[in-house]
Amino acid sequence: MKNKILVFFIIGFVLYLIDIGLNNYDDKEIFISDSEITSLITAWRSQVGRNPNDDEVARIINDLVQEEILYREALKLGLDQDDRIIKRRLAQKLSFLKQESVEKLPSSQELKDFFNDNKEKYYIEPEYTFTHYFFSSENNSFDRSNKAIKDIYGNKQINADPFLLGKNFVDVNLNKIKNDFGESFTQSIKNMELNKWVGPIKSPYGHHIVFISNYKSGYFPEISMVLKQVEIDLLQLRRDSAIQEYLEEIQSEYKIYINPELTF
C-alpha cells in the first residue's frame, strides 16, 4: 500500500514539474530578430530614399517593440476573437503561403498547352479610331443631333456640347468604348461604315454623330506576343489550385453548423 502511495506521489510530482516547465514561458520577454530589423530598415530606405540615421533606427526598433507589446496585450484581452478583419487577414496570409509553395516555372510545352486551351482569353479585340459630336440629353439631344447630321453634309457649322472624355479616340477596343459610351453606342459602332458620318447614336449621356476613320480587325495572337501574360495566368491558376486542394484536403475535418431557420 505504501509503495502505491509512493508511486502516485512521484507521478503527481513529475506532472507538477512538467506543468511548471510548460508554463515557465515569460510572455514579458520580447526577442527582436535581426531579420525583422533588417526588413523594416530596408522598407524605410525604399520609402525615404536614404539610409536611416541612428535616431531613426532607434525609432524604427522602438515602434516595433511597442507594436509587439500592444499585440500581446490585445491577445490577452481576447481582441483577436470574433474579429472579421483579423480572420480575413489571417486567411489571406495562409493563402499567400500556399500560393508561394508553387515556385516551379512552367515549361515551354506547358505554356503552349495552356495557351492553346485558353486562346479566347488572349483574343485581341477590334480597334476603332473615330471622332464624334456630342449632344447632351439635358438639351433636346435627339432633335439637335438629327439636325447636326444633316448640317454636316451641308457643310454647316455644328453646335455641339462638350464631352467630358474628349472628341477624338484612337485605336480603342470595344470594351473601352462600352465603358465610355455604353452598350447601345457600342453595338451601333460595330455596324458602322468607315469614313462616313452616322447618327444620331444614343448613349447614356445623350446622342452623338460619329465618324469612324480607321478600323483594325480582331485576331488571335501568336504565343510569342503574349508569352509573359500566359506565364502569369498559368502560375496564378496553379496557385489558386493549390489553395483549393488544401481546402478540400482539410475541409472534411470540420463540421459546419448553420441555423437552417435563419431568414434574411
UniProtKB/TrEMBL annotation:
Gene3D superfamilies: 3.10.50.40, Porin chaperone SurA, peptide-binding domain. The keyword DNA damage does not apply. Residues 106-223 form the PpiC domain. The chain crosses the membrane at residues 6-25. It comes from SAR86 cluster bacterium SAR86A. InterPro entries: PPIase_dom_sf, PPIase_PpiC, Trigger_fact/SurA_dom_sf. Signal peptide: none annotated. Keywords: Membrane, Transmembrane, Transmembrane helix. Pfam families: Rotamase_2. GO terms for molecular function: peptidyl-prolyl cis-trans isomerase activity. This is PpiC domain-containing protein. It comes from the Bacteria.
